[in-house]
Design goal:
3-stranded mixed β-sheet; Potassium Channel Kv1.1, Chain A
Amino acid sequence: MVVVTGQNKVSGNPDDAMSSSDAEDDFQEPATPTATQAGQALPLLPQQFPEVVPLNVGGMYFTTRLSTLRRYEDTMLAAMFSGRHYIPTDAEGRYFIDRDGTYFGDILNFLRSGDLPPRERVRAVYKEAQYYSIGPLLDNLEDIQPLKGEKVRQAFLGLMPYYKDHLERIIEIAKLRAMQRKARFAKLKVCVFKEEMPITPYECPHFNSLRFERSESETKLFEHHCEVDVSFGPWEAVADVYDLLHCIVTDLSDRGITVDHQCIGVCDKHLINHYYCKRPIYEFKITWW
């Protein structure tokens, strides 16, 4: 039996005595809760924002009203400054948004008064509006150039089978040839044709009737693949071969690829009777450095 006196003297069998370390373990005070435990125990209070909000967006400073940031409910900015989320501040007490602030002024101008950016900044501001999920701004930008024209262009390209795949093939072939030859540039042949049925010049006046009168078996006689690296077509739209060539060059340029092209002739493959392919062949020259 263990007896603990007021002077902490212990009597009894030494084997039955509790060690001082055991006693300390039994009577030690609870440890101070960690930050994680405290966060689990006590929910953070809603963050309070001033009426005039100083901002630091990627190192660029802005000042606006809280109501401006909350102008549209379903946006990221409205959610960030709703009080439900914690936003860090910089050394000067400005609320910090870790985003390039180059076009944030255009975002604020729209939230303030509905102003839209000049044409040369439309694409960049559109990208920022997507990030901040500002639907009304996105809708307005899509109705002006150059985004409105891009929607029309994409509608045309939607008629083109495997358009994006063919662009990738052009890039891969050009890269492989340049690396194999240790060359600064690479050339490849590209066929761009609008009509599915091949014709010869003197058939043009009768082409529309001829194409619909041909049976399925006759149509197969005209099926072939031109001896080129990549082939685009056919399609049914007012836009012609030169319009598609413009799209191809534009999309390659947007990816940082320098490309020149020229028509080097037509496919002269003989198909049947007096029918020849006559699809235009273009040489693409892609310069890598």
